[in-house]
Description:
- The chain is an alpha+beta fold.
- It has helices at 48-66, 108-115, 124-127, 136-146, 150-155, 164-172, 185-188, 203-209, 243-250, 309-317, 327-332, 372-398, 415-425, 437-449, 456-460, 475-490, and strands at 4-10, 14-20, 26-33, 45-46, 73-80, 85-89, 99-100, 159-163, 182-184, 194-195, 200-201, 218-220, 223-229, 235-242, 259-263, 267-274, 285-290, 298-305, 342-344, 362-364, 405-408, 429-432, 465-469.
- The strands form 7 sheets. It has a 7-stranded mixed β-sheet.
- A hairpin with a 7-residue loop joins strand 17 (285-290) and strand 18 (298-305).
- The chain is globular, with a radius of gyration of 22 Å.
- The relative contact order is 0.13.
Amino acid sequence: MNPLIAAIDQGTTSTRCILFDAAGKIVAQEQKEHRQIYPRPGWVEHDPLEILERTQEVVLAAVAKSGYSSTDLAAIGITNQRETTVVWDRRTGKPYTNAIVWQDTRTAEVCAQLAADGGQNRFREKTGLPLATYFSGPKLRWILENIPGVRSDAERGNALFGTIDSWLIWNLTGGPEHGMHITDVTNASRTMLMDLRTLDWDPEILKILDIPRSMLPKIEPSAQIYGHADFLNGVPIAGDLGDQQAALFGQACFAPGEAKNTYGTGCFMLLNTGNEIIPSKSGLLTTLGYKIGAAPAVYCLEGSIAIAGALVQWLRDNLKLISSAAEVETLARSVEDNGGMYIVPAFSGLFAPYWRSDARGVMVGLTQFINRGHIARAVLEATAFQTREVLDAMKADSGVQLTTLKVDGGMVKNDLLMQFQADILDVPVVRPVITETTALGAAYAAGLAVGYWKDLDSLCGQWGVDRQWSPTMNHTTRNHLYAGWKKAVTRTLNWIES
């Protein structure tokens, strides 16, 4: 049998393994959820050991489903929730505490202290990022200051830091015995500790945050053989990309000016800017897109939205208005429009383009006319409105006028949302044949590293259109709805007082 590429997609709510063939088609897959831990308001945690266990389980199950064996795998690629932070003991492999998830806001005080000298953009010139609770650096600082034993172990060289990719690769390549402590440029660019130009940890920022460099993984390209998976008889682990960069890669956005939007727990739009670093003046992030082997790094502008699919989950789990995510479209179609109401899901503050940790979610425009259908419709529209704000910022920063938007992620199955997205953007929205682009991007990177695929051109030929939505909304209606959204956003601000 022809060999396959395995992609491990370790996400915020679940872990998947998808096996791809040489045509980029899915051969088999397996997925398992892990617990969401909320110790306090604003705190979000995961159990790293549970994630590791789920990862091994889904890989073995996907291989078993495929009818292949581990010896039929050419390589493994890993993609991951990016800023989620783990610190563990290199001697035992045990985490010192639960992973602090990217949505967690406990580091607001750390960020405020850092911003007191130099402002929110203190490190932006080097890192492309504002000071925000989103990123890994402040989370690591918090762990060093608040978890007993970590600081002393770190100074002795025994405590290791990593995002989820580093945690998995270290464990899968041998753990305490001979695990590889690495990360790739895309994940490193989300820590607020890496210089975009040198692609290395910045000594000045490490000193300011009081983080020992010995804790940090080695920064590697996104496609390279890092080590071999012990539990799979030595299959090379050869791809590593943060989830949104992996989706960009899986969407074959290899040329400057090409963009994609991923609708998952959050919502993330990335615009390829080529080998050029474009500083954002409009609230976006400047980040790494990918680096393939020895080739030059490719950069991006990114608009990060904290809550997208998570708002549908909230509607299901907290309000009990639906019993499954798929029901939200049916409920939203029961009404003609949003009835004048908006939901702004600033559950953990506002991300791009505002970066306001003091914001909290609101429902506005409520009248006695509003029913369950209007709430469901407002939930879907919130994702589309947030995407419009990000696209406006991208136009301002890059000067690029998008002609189409490539989309992927779980929410793109929702036809009502996709049509409204095209309407509110006034841009066609295109869904590819293979929507699992995050896993596909990780597979592509690993496959390139081992010669499974020849080059980027060969990957471009595999991308195909499944469906396109074209704008049908008139200009007056679009402007009226968007003005209402912008007004609703102002009601979220200054809710949390210092």
